Protein backbone atom coordinates (compact mmCIF):
# COMPACT_ATOMS: atom_id res chain seq x y z
CA UNK A 1 0.00 0.00 0.00
CA UNK A 2 1.41 3.39 -0.96
CA UNK A 3 1.85 5.90 1.87
CA UNK A 4 3.26 9.46 1.82
CA UNK A 5 7.05 9.38 1.65
CA UNK A 6 7.24 5.89 0.17
CA UNK A 7 8.77 4.74 -3.11
CA UNK A 8 7.85 1.62 -5.02
CA UNK A 9 10.63 -0.90 -5.69
CA UNK A 10 9.80 -3.07 -8.70
CA UNK A 11 11.28 -6.41 -9.74
CA UNK A 12 10.29 -6.61 -13.38
CA UNK A 13 6.53 -7.00 -13.69
CA UNK A 14 6.32 -9.66 -10.96
CA UNK A 15 6.78 -7.66 -7.78
CA UNK A 16 6.15 -4.09 -6.65
CA UNK A 17 6.96 -3.26 -3.01
CA UNK A 18 6.37 0.20 -1.46
CA UNK A 19 9.37 1.20 0.68
CA UNK A 20 9.55 4.22 2.99
CA UNK A 21 12.96 5.75 3.50
CA UNK A 22 12.41 6.16 7.26
CA UNK A 23 11.36 2.51 7.64
CA UNK A 24 14.29 1.36 5.51
CA UNK A 25 16.79 3.30 7.63
CA UNK A 26 15.16 2.03 10.82
CA UNK A 27 15.28 -1.57 9.58
CA UNK A 28 18.94 -1.31 8.59
CA UNK A 29 19.84 0.28 11.95
CA UNK A 30 18.07 -2.48 13.90
CA UNK A 31 19.69 -5.18 11.74
CA UNK A 32 23.15 -3.69 12.38
CA UNK A 33 22.36 -3.59 16.12
CA UNK A 34 21.40 -7.29 16.04
CA UNK A 35 24.72 -8.13 14.37
CA UNK A 36 26.57 -6.04 16.97
CA UNK A 37 24.82 -7.87 19.81
CA UNK A 38 25.68 -11.16 18.08
CA UNK A 39 29.37 -10.23 17.99
CA UNK A 40 29.23 -9.27 21.67
CA UNK A 41 27.46 -12.54 22.52
CA UNK A 42 30.22 -14.59 20.87
CA UNK A 43 33.22 -12.59 22.09
CA UNK A 44 32.52 -11.37 25.65
CA UNK A 45 33.34 -13.24 28.83
CA UNK A 46 35.91 -15.85 29.76
CA UNK A 47 34.70 -18.30 27.13
CA UNK A 48 34.31 -15.67 24.41
CA UNK A 49 36.17 -15.92 21.13
CA UNK A 50 38.80 -13.24 20.62
CA UNK A 51 37.31 -10.51 18.38
CA UNK A 52 40.19 -10.70 15.89
CA UNK A 53 39.62 -14.47 15.59
CA UNK A 54 35.85 -14.28 15.07
CA UNK A 55 35.71 -13.72 11.26
CA UNK A 56 37.99 -16.68 10.60
CA UNK A 57 36.15 -18.84 13.14
CA UNK A 58 32.82 -18.12 11.45
CA UNK A 59 34.19 -19.08 8.01
CA UNK A 60 36.07 -22.17 9.14
CA UNK A 61 34.71 -23.39 12.48
CA UNK A 62 37.71 -24.47 14.56
CA UNK A 63 37.92 -27.30 17.03
CA UNK A 64 38.57 -26.88 20.73
CA UNK A 65 37.01 -24.20 22.91
CA UNK A 66 36.24 -21.82 20.04
CA UNK A 67 34.37 -24.56 18.17
CA UNK A 68 32.50 -25.48 21.34
CA UNK A 69 31.37 -21.86 21.83
CA UNK A 70 30.24 -21.55 18.22
CA UNK A 71 28.64 -24.96 17.73
CA UNK A 72 27.25 -25.80 21.14
CA UNK A 73 27.28 -22.98 23.68
CA UNK A 74 26.47 -19.58 22.20
CA UNK A 75 26.03 -20.04 18.44
CA UNK A 76 22.69 -21.91 18.49
CA UNK A 77 21.53 -19.85 21.46
CA UNK A 78 21.94 -16.60 19.53
CA UNK A 79 20.37 -18.00 16.34
CA UNK A 80 17.35 -19.29 18.30
CA UNK A 81 17.04 -15.94 20.11
CA UNK A 82 16.91 -13.99 16.82
CA UNK A 83 14.16 -16.15 15.34
CA UNK A 84 12.18 -16.43 18.59
CA UNK A 85 12.21 -12.67 19.10
CA UNK A 86 11.17 -12.14 15.49
CA UNK A 87 8.29 -14.62 15.81
CA UNK A 88 7.05 -12.91 18.98
CA UNK A 89 7.34 -9.48 17.38
CA UNK A 90 5.31 -10.54 14.34
CA UNK A 91 2.70 -12.27 16.48
CA UNK A 92 2.23 -9.16 18.61
CA UNK A 93 2.03 -6.90 15.56
CA UNK A 94 -0.70 -9.00 13.97
CA UNK A 95 -2.74 -9.34 17.16
CA UNK A 96 -2.52 -5.64 18.06
CA UNK A 97 -3.55 -4.63 14.54
CA UNK A 98 -6.42 -7.11 14.34
CA UNK A 99 -7.80 -6.07 17.74
CA UNK A 100 -7.00 -2.36 17.12
CA UNK A 101 -5.75 -2.43 20.67
CA UNK A 102 -2.16 -1.87 21.94
CA UNK A 103 -2.94 -4.25 24.81
CA UNK A 104 -4.11 -7.01 22.49
CA UNK A 105 -0.85 -8.92 22.55
CA UNK A 106 -0.38 -12.67 23.10
CA UNK A 107 1.03 -12.03 26.59
CA UNK A 108 -1.91 -10.01 27.86
CA UNK A 109 -4.68 -12.23 26.51
CA UNK A 110 -3.18 -15.42 27.92
CA UNK A 111 -2.08 -16.95 24.62
CA UNK A 112 1.51 -17.36 25.76
CA UNK A 113 0.48 -18.95 29.06
CA UNK A 114 -1.88 -21.27 27.15
CA UNK A 115 0.90 -22.29 24.79
CA UNK A 116 3.16 -22.96 27.77
CA UNK A 117 0.51 -25.15 29.40
CA UNK A 118 0.05 -27.10 26.18
CA UNK A 119 3.78 -27.60 25.75
CA UNK A 120 4.15 -28.71 29.37
CA UNK A 121 1.35 -31.24 29.00
CA UNK A 122 2.87 -32.67 25.82
CA UNK A 123 6.38 -32.83 27.23
CA UNK A 124 5.70 -34.41 30.59
CA UNK A 125 2.07 -35.31 31.25
CA UNK A 126 1.36 -37.18 28.00
CA UNK A 127 4.80 -37.66 26.39
CA UNK A 128 4.62 -38.93 22.83
CA UNK A 129 0.88 -38.41 22.44
CA UNK A 130 1.24 -35.06 20.67
CA UNK A 131 4.37 -33.21 19.59
CA UNK A 132 5.40 -30.22 21.72
CA UNK A 133 4.93 -27.62 18.93
CA UNK A 134 1.48 -29.02 18.06
CA UNK A 135 0.45 -29.09 21.70
CA UNK A 136 1.69 -25.50 22.23
CA UNK A 137 -0.32 -24.38 19.21
CA UNK A 138 -3.40 -26.17 20.53
CA UNK A 139 -2.99 -24.59 23.97
CA UNK A 140 -2.59 -21.12 22.43
CA UNK A 141 -5.64 -21.60 20.21
CA UNK A 142 -7.80 -22.72 23.15
CA UNK A 143 -6.68 -19.72 25.23
CA UNK A 144 -7.50 -17.33 22.36
CA UNK A 145 -10.96 -18.81 21.82
CA UNK A 146 -11.77 -18.69 25.54
CA UNK A 147 -10.72 -15.04 25.79
CA UNK A 148 -12.65 -14.09 22.66
CA UNK A 149 -15.94 -15.51 23.92
CA UNK A 150 -15.51 -14.69 27.62
CA UNK A 151 -15.17 -10.93 27.02
CA UNK A 152 -18.61 -10.85 25.41
CA UNK A 153 -17.27 -8.22 22.98
CA UNK A 154 -14.51 -10.09 21.20
CA UNK A 155 -11.18 -8.25 21.28
CA UNK A 156 -12.61 -4.72 21.07
CA UNK A 157 -12.73 -3.73 24.77
CA UNK A 158 -9.30 -3.24 26.46
CA UNK A 159 -10.68 -3.60 29.99
CA UNK A 160 -12.64 -6.78 29.19
CA UNK A 161 -9.64 -8.11 27.29
CA UNK A 162 -7.27 -7.64 30.24
CA UNK A 163 -9.67 -9.19 32.75
CA UNK A 164 -10.34 -12.17 30.51
CA UNK A 165 -6.62 -12.51 29.79
CA UNK A 166 -5.77 -12.52 33.49
CA UNK A 167 -8.37 -15.23 34.06
CA UNK A 168 -7.17 -17.40 31.20
CA UNK A 169 -3.53 -16.95 32.22
CA UNK A 170 -4.40 -17.95 35.79
CA UNK A 171 -6.15 -21.11 34.57
CA UNK A 172 -3.21 -21.98 32.30
CA UNK A 173 -0.70 -21.40 35.10
CA UNK A 174 -2.82 -23.49 37.50
CA UNK A 175 -2.83 -26.34 35.00
CA UNK A 176 0.91 -25.99 34.51
CA UNK A 177 1.50 -26.04 38.26
CA UNK A 178 -0.55 -29.21 38.47
CA UNK A 179 1.71 -30.77 35.84
CA UNK A 180 4.74 -29.75 37.89
CA UNK A 181 3.29 -31.29 41.04
CA UNK A 182 2.52 -34.67 39.52
CA UNK A 183 6.00 -35.06 38.04
CA UNK A 184 9.13 -36.29 39.73
CA UNK A 185 11.48 -33.74 41.29
CA UNK A 186 13.99 -33.88 38.41
CA UNK A 187 11.32 -33.57 35.73
CA UNK A 188 9.64 -30.73 37.64
CA UNK A 189 12.94 -28.84 37.85
CA UNK A 190 13.41 -29.14 34.08
CA UNK A 191 9.83 -28.05 33.47
CA UNK A 192 10.12 -25.10 35.85
CA UNK A 193 13.23 -23.85 34.04
CA UNK A 194 11.41 -24.15 30.72
CA UNK A 195 8.29 -22.31 31.94
CA UNK A 196 10.28 -19.26 33.05
CA UNK A 197 11.36 -18.75 29.45
CA UNK A 198 15.00 -19.58 28.84
CA UNK A 199 17.44 -19.69 25.93
CA UNK A 200 20.06 -21.60 27.86
CA UNK A 201 21.28 -24.84 26.25
CA UNK A 202 19.37 -24.30 23.00
CA UNK A 203 20.43 -26.61 20.18
CA UNK A 204 20.65 -26.41 16.39
CA UNK A 205 17.56 -28.62 16.34
CA UNK A 206 15.68 -25.84 18.13
CA UNK A 207 17.09 -23.36 15.61
CA UNK A 208 15.88 -25.43 12.65
CA UNK A 209 12.40 -25.68 14.21
CA UNK A 210 11.85 -21.98 14.82
CA UNK A 211 13.52 -20.81 11.58
CA UNK A 212 11.46 -23.30 9.53
CA UNK A 213 8.24 -21.91 11.02
CA UNK A 214 9.46 -18.37 10.42
CA UNK A 215 10.39 -19.12 6.79
CA UNK A 216 6.85 -20.29 6.10
CA UNK A 217 4.87 -17.75 8.12
CA UNK A 218 6.89 -14.54 7.66
CA UNK A 219 5.86 -14.16 3.97
CA UNK A 220 2.27 -14.91 4.94
CA UNK A 221 2.41 -12.27 7.69
CA UNK A 222 3.88 -9.69 5.28
CA UNK A 223 1.07 -10.37 2.80
CA UNK A 224 -1.52 -10.05 5.57
CA UNK A 225 0.12 -6.88 6.86
CA UNK A 226 -0.66 -5.07 3.60
CA UNK A 227 -4.32 -6.07 3.87
CA UNK A 228 -4.42 -5.05 7.53
CA UNK A 229 -3.46 -1.54 6.46
CA UNK A 230 -6.65 -1.47 4.40
CA UNK A 231 -8.71 -2.69 7.37
CA UNK A 232 -7.52 0.28 9.42
CA UNK A 233 -9.58 2.44 7.03
CA UNK A 234 -12.71 0.50 8.00
CA UNK A 235 -14.13 -2.84 6.96
CA UNK A 236 -16.34 -1.45 4.21
CA UNK A 237 -13.49 0.46 2.59
CA UNK A 238 -11.18 -2.54 2.96
CA UNK A 239 -13.68 -4.89 1.34
CA UNK A 240 -14.23 -2.42 -1.49
CA UNK A 241 -10.45 -2.30 -2.11
CA UNK A 242 -10.04 -6.09 -1.98
CA UNK A 243 -8.92 -6.29 1.64
CA UNK A 244 -11.41 -9.09 2.53
CA UNK A 245 -11.62 -7.96 6.16
CA UNK A 246 -13.13 -11.06 7.78
CA UNK A 247 -10.82 -13.49 6.01
CA UNK A 248 -7.78 -11.29 6.72
CA UNK A 249 -8.61 -11.14 10.46
CA UNK A 250 -9.11 -14.90 10.67
CA UNK A 251 -5.84 -15.72 8.92
CA UNK A 252 -3.93 -13.10 10.90
CA UNK A 253 -5.04 -14.71 14.17
CA UNK A 254 -4.09 -18.18 12.87
CA UNK A 255 -0.61 -16.99 11.83
CA UNK A 256 -0.12 -15.10 15.12
CA UNK A 257 -1.07 -18.15 17.18
CA UNK A 258 1.26 -20.42 15.18
CA UNK A 259 4.21 -18.02 15.54
CA UNK A 260 3.68 -17.52 19.26
CA UNK A 261 3.30 -21.25 19.84
CA UNK A 262 6.47 -21.99 17.86
CA UNK A 263 8.38 -19.48 19.98
CA UNK A 264 7.06 -21.04 23.18
CA UNK A 265 7.90 -24.56 22.00
CA UNK A 266 11.62 -23.74 21.62
CA UNK A 267 12.19 -21.17 24.38
CA UNK A 268 9.29 -21.34 26.81
CA UNK A 269 6.80 -18.53 27.45
CA UNK A 270 8.97 -15.40 27.15
CA UNK A 271 6.70 -12.52 28.08
CA UNK A 272 6.29 -8.94 26.86
CA UNK A 273 8.45 -9.08 23.71
CA UNK A 274 5.30 -9.36 21.61
CA UNK A 275 3.72 -6.49 23.55
CA UNK A 276 6.57 -4.01 23.28
CA UNK A 277 8.15 -4.71 19.87
CA UNK A 278 5.18 -3.53 17.72
CA UNK A 279 4.68 -0.42 19.88
CA UNK A 280 8.35 0.59 19.67
CA UNK A 281 8.27 -0.03 15.93
CA UNK A 282 5.15 2.06 15.37
CA UNK A 283 6.51 5.01 17.33
CA UNK A 284 9.84 4.99 15.51
CA UNK A 285 8.55 4.35 12.00
CA UNK A 286 5.39 6.50 12.30
CA UNK A 287 3.75 4.16 9.81
CA UNK A 288 0.21 2.74 10.09
CA UNK A 289 -0.45 -0.99 9.86
CA UNK A 290 1.21 -4.03 11.35
CA UNK A 291 4.80 -3.15 10.24
CA UNK A 292 5.55 -6.87 10.17
CA UNK A 293 9.19 -6.83 9.07
CA UNK A 294 10.20 -3.99 11.39
CA UNK A 295 8.35 -5.57 14.33
CA UNK A 296 10.20 -8.83 13.64
CA UNK A 297 13.57 -7.07 13.68
CA UNK A 298 12.69 -5.12 16.84
CA UNK A 299 11.48 -8.27 18.61
CA UNK A 300 14.72 -10.02 17.65
CA UNK A 301 16.82 -7.11 18.94
CA UNK A 302 14.94 -7.00 22.26
CA UNK A 303 15.39 -10.70 22.89
CA UNK A 304 19.07 -11.00 21.87
CA UNK A 305 19.88 -7.93 23.98
CA UNK A 306 18.04 -9.35 26.99
CA UNK A 307 19.83 -12.67 26.50
CA UNK A 308 23.21 -10.93 26.29
CA UNK A 309 22.43 -9.17 29.58
CA UNK A 310 21.65 -12.41 31.43
CA UNK A 311 24.94 -13.83 30.12
CA UNK A 312 27.24 -10.89 30.89
CA UNK A 313 25.70 -8.38 33.33
CA UNK A 314 26.55 -9.41 36.92
CA UNK A 315 23.31 -8.07 38.44
CA UNK A 316 21.10 -10.36 36.31
CA UNK A 317 23.65 -12.99 35.34
CA UNK A 318 22.31 -16.53 34.88
CA UNK A 319 18.67 -15.48 35.24
CA UNK A 320 16.31 -17.05 32.67
CA UNK A 321 15.80 -14.44 29.96
CA UNK A 322 12.04 -14.63 30.52
CA UNK A 323 12.49 -13.25 34.05
CA UNK A 324 14.32 -10.20 32.71
CA UNK A 325 11.71 -9.49 30.01
CA UNK A 326 8.94 -9.76 32.60
CA UNK A 327 10.71 -7.24 34.84
CA UNK A 328 11.20 -4.69 32.06
CA UNK A 329 7.98 -5.45 30.17
CA UNK A 330 5.91 -5.17 33.34
CA UNK A 331 6.99 -1.55 33.69
CA UNK A 332 6.00 -0.88 30.10
CA UNK A 333 2.63 -2.57 30.61
CA UNK A 334 2.01 -0.31 33.61
CA UNK A 335 2.79 2.75 31.48
CA UNK A 336 0.47 1.47 28.75
CA UNK A 337 -2.38 0.89 31.19
CA UNK A 338 -2.03 4.40 32.62
CA UNK A 339 -1.98 5.90 29.14
CA UNK A 340 -5.08 3.99 28.03
CA UNK A 341 -6.85 4.97 31.26
CA UNK A 342 -6.10 8.66 30.66
CA UNK A 343 -7.42 8.31 27.10
CA UNK A 344 -10.65 6.90 28.53
CA UNK A 345 -10.41 3.58 26.70
CA UNK A 346 -10.17 1.54 29.91
From TrEMBL:
Gene3D superfamilies: ABC transporter involved in vitamin B12 uptake, BtuC
Record's bilayer topology term: Multi-pass membrane protein
Transmembrane regions listed in the UniProt entry: 24-44, 78-96, 108-126, 161-182, 203-224, 250-277, 289-313, 319-338
GO cellular component term, pick one: plasma membrane
One of the protein's GO biological processes: siderophore-iron import into cell
One matching Pfam family: FecCD
InterPro entries: ABC_BtuC-like, ABC_transptr_permease_BtuC
Localisation: Cell membrane
One function term, GO molecular function aspect: transmembrane transporter activity
Family, per entry: Belongs to the binding-protein-dependent transport system permease family. FecCD subfamily.
Name the record gives this protein: Iron complex transport system permease protein
Amino acid sequence: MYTPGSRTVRVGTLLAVPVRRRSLVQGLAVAVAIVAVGVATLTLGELGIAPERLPAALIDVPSGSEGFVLKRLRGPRFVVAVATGAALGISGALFQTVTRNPLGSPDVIGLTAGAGAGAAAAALLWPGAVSVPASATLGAAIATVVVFFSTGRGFSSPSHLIIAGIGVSAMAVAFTQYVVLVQSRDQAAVLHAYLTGSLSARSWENAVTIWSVLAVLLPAAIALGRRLQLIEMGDESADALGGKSERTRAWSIVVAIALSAAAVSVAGPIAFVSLTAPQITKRLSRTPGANVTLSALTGALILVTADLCVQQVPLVEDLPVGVLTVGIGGLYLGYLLVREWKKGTM
